[in-house]
Amino acid sequence: MAAENGTPLQFVFWETIPADRSGYTNTIEFYDLLPRYLFGEQPADKSSLAREFEFAGTPYRMTVTPAQFQNPDGTETIAFPGEREQIVEDVIRRLSIEQDRLKLSAATQRVEFAFTIYELQKELRRVNHSLSRAEIKEALKILHRSFFEVTKQGTKKPMVSSTAFPLLSMADSSDEGSKHVLQFNELVAEGLKRLHFRPIDYERLMTIKTGPGRWLYKRMVQRFTQAGGFLSYDILASSIARDSGMSERSRWRDTLKKVDRAVKSLEEAKILDSFIREERRDEKTRKILDVFYTIYPGRDFCRDQKWANAASNEAQEDFARISGQAEADKFVIVPLDEARRLRGQKRAGRQSPAGGSALPLFRKNQS
Question: How far apart are CA 331 and CA 366, in angstroms?
């Protein structure tokens, strides 16, 4: 909360999921598709990972450096974020959509989240990704200390140089109810502020068996902004490998097997109805150069994207009508009673009246 008697309007849209879609969370545009994780064994050379990827047709460079810290027993951990960290971050994101869980620092515009290890462990167990308290704490440290830097190709100045959680304050207590605080990455805060996020089926996400598969599901959610009943999605194995962060594997055939598993995991999770796999081979050696996938999403996925499109558009329209701003480029503080009223409308699935203000007029505090 940014003010004693108010809350950021953007937080209301972030945390308000209709009652009939309680198993959903939000995915952040761009940030959630960064190849920040290592899908595979930790490499012998842990100096850094250099990656190239594309987003919306624009090429980027990325460098990931490992987390490094000393453990209570005196041993040292040097590790890149992997599938475990991906899952922990997704669980934290899901918990953050609960009402009044996010806090905004008025001075710094930081978005912070308070939590307990117990609730993380409980939720991880519920979604069949159980971890010990020690494993959760280690995952949080890795997310806090592993730096990544993203730069547009052809430029020198990084867009962002940070960690998943730039601030992590862990209470010095063994009490499972002790509160800890983390700060979301600036790209998450920016996406939240500008309403650049979309709903995604969290329960289904947690059933996907591979890290690259979870990445591919998020990519599809972010790309299918005009989903219809008969749409397909075409993508190359090389694009999945490059953009998700699998391309550092030495043997191409091993990478192809991993991409195959990622696509099949979406079919197993009933996100896809089916897919067609077309191998592209060298004419002389018959070696597989690439694989072209034509992916056919299932009815539930298409239905979800139609709803997500409507929800995203409605959030933008409601923000403009309520705040009086054409663009969500600043956090706007609304009185608590007005926030409660809007939450009630959203959770009941009622849209704001067309042509009118969803809430009574109020002073437009900005932080």
Answer: 6
Amino acid of residue 140: L
User: By C-alpha distance, which of 34, 59, 31, 56 is closest to 244?
Assistant: 34
pLDDT, tens digit, 9 for 90 and up, residues 95-137: 999 989 999 987 888 999 999 999 999 999 999 999 999 999 9
Q: Both tokens of residue 79? A: 């590790």
Beta strands in 153-254 (DSSP E): 160-162, 167-169, 180-183, 197-201, 233-236
The residue type of 17 is I
pTM: predicted TM-score of the whole model, two decimal places: 0.91
- Sequence letter at residue 57: G
C-alpha pair distances (Å), 154 with each of 61, 196, 357: 9, 25, 44
Distance CA 332, CA 106 (A): 11
> Which residues, at least 6 apart from 294, have a Cβ–Cβ distance to it below 8 Å?
232, 233, 234, 275, 276, 278
Q: What is the pLDDT of residues 64-96, one digit of tens each?
A: 999 999 988 888 999 999 999 999 999 999 999
Q: Where are the domains of the chain?
A: 20-207, 211-299
Q: What topology does CATH give the domain 211-299?
A: Arc Repressor Mutant, subunit A (1.10.10)
Give whole-number Cα distances, 320 to 3, 29, 329, 352, 357, in Å. 21, 20, 11, 12, 9
